[in-house]
Amino acid sequence: MEAKANGPSVNAGRVMDGPTNPMVTPLLTDLYQFTMAYAYWKAGKHNDRAVFDLYFRKNPFGGEFTVFAGLEECIKLIANFKLTEEEISFICETLPGSCEEGFVKYLRNIDCSDVEVYAISEGTVVFPKVPLLRVEGPVAVVQLLETPVLNLVNFASLVATNAARHRLVAGKSKMLLEFGLRRAQGPDGAISASKYCYIGGFDATSNVAAGRLFGIPLRGTHSHAFVSSFMSPDEILERSLHRSDGSSTCEDFVSLVQSWLSKIQWSKALGNSVGETNQSELAAFTSYALAFPNNFLALVDTYDVMRSGVPNFCAVALALNDLGYKSVGIRLDSGDLAYLSGEARKIFQIIEKEFGLPGFGKTSITASNDLNEETLDALNKQGHEVDCYGIGTYLVTCYAQAALGCVFKLVEINNQPRIKLSEDVSKVSIPCKKRCYRLYGREGYSLVDIMTGENEPCPKVGERILCRHPFNESKRAYVVPQRVEELLKCYWPGKSGKVREELPALKDIRDHCIKQLEQMRPDHIRRLNPTPYKVSVSAKLYDFIHFLWLNEAPVGELQ
Prior knowledge:
Blueprint: H1 31-42, E1 49-55, E2 66-67, H2 71-79, H3 85-94, H4 101-109, E3 116-119, E4 125-126, E5 133-138, H5 139-170, E6 175-178, H6 186-199, E7 204-205, H7 208-214, H8 224-228, E8 241-242, E9 249-250, H9 253-265, H10 279-291, E10 297-299, H11 305-322, E11 329-332, H12 337-355, E12 364-367, H13 373-382, E13 388-391, H14 393-396, E14 407-413, E15 416-417, E16 434-440, E17 446-453, E18 465-468, E19 476-479, E20 483-486, E21 489-492, H15 506-518, H16 522-525, E22 534-538, H17 539-552
Parallel strand pairs: 6-7, 6-13, 10-11, 11-12, 12-13, 17-22
Antiparallel strand pairs: 1-5, 1-14, 2-4, 3-5, 3-21, 8-9, 14-15, 16-17, 16-20, 18-19, 18-22
Helix pairs in contact: 1-5, 2-5, 5-6, 5-13, 9-11, 10-11, 11-12
Pfam families: NAPRTase_C, NAPRTase_N
Enzyme class: ligase
Cofactor: Mn(2+); Mg(2+)
């Protein structure tokens, strides 16, 4: 199944389709956005030209990187931002006091045709303080976008980052499956998690709805209930199975399985270690193989993994092999995954050698059972034979951290830079409309992100530039970039006439995310004690920040 394109599609006169979740409307906002809009309108300020930055202050999960996600849904919201008559009536009934007819007329005409959105590409590795989105437009309209845009970016970026961290721990060679639907925070949490886990590096999902909506590859076989629902092989009524090439038919596949089980039980290479297996489990495996001979993967821990599950799987797999089919593998959902995967691998390798079956020793082993970053790391340290991980609860709920904490701050109004001050320096905003660049070194890794004023010259390859910490005077360094990448691109031009960046296909976003992680220095993305990535401002912007800070901060008086 191919991932679908996320780009604009013309539909009944609309610029592009609306957000995936139909609940994402202009009313998906906090009440104070509408009370401010009314107050702006009353003051005649509603059309003042404002610039807001959306950014976060601290990387999640104790790490030093974040994956930006949710941009596509933001652009779809902005492209379709229009209040219905019913929504306007509800707003007017909800606002404190009476609502003037002029404001009702204003609400009827609100859209985002005069809004501009500049953003970092979705799937990019990002860092604190650097704007993920810059939204420009009439102040009342942009304020109405604040809450829904934050809602669409916060969880998306958090879960994409969580997925990327799991991918980094698992390694490039392992397959990662997202199994979180049943444990996610409601339907939207589940759909969003499936999409953004895929962006973060997962290979497939069990979520059928997400597969249909986004073209994410689907994976899934059977549960313990399927295995325990069978009582004996006598329940299998349809026993015939065509060869894979259609040349002939095995009339009694059940008997073929039983004959192979007998051979395994009498195998000297296995040391006669295989005794009587659970026949109801064997019946379930056989029935499933008859239904899906090309995709046979068995859940082997319903009764006993080594005494029953693995031998029964091997018997069915060898019978399928006789008919030209190749089994997928087994899934372990409980027990000591490192030990069990190793023992299962030994049996597969013995059977390959004993019965002359090339490749059987490499039969895939999937592990599930409440896995998370810590358990993956522990498995790596113990040594294991797992090829694929099915991960659910800890992944999709972002159990290790509840929220990312993105904020949406005014940085300019009517061409006048604005700053938000705080006794907590980490909460001081960086004023004015900015341009953001990523500077790369000789080895191809990114060295530093730098923010400059809008009208400052772009950093140039091979030319030394002073990079300063926004607030710490002593932290500064010269950088001679070997490559310069501008981060903010125009994804919604409004009336500016600028060329709009196309929204890429979901798989392209995923590929971009994986490439981004490869361009990061390993110590920045390691799991334990990662090195903080440097985010800086130009010397000119540094001077302006501190000039504005002193200008806006009231001077105290000692008595």
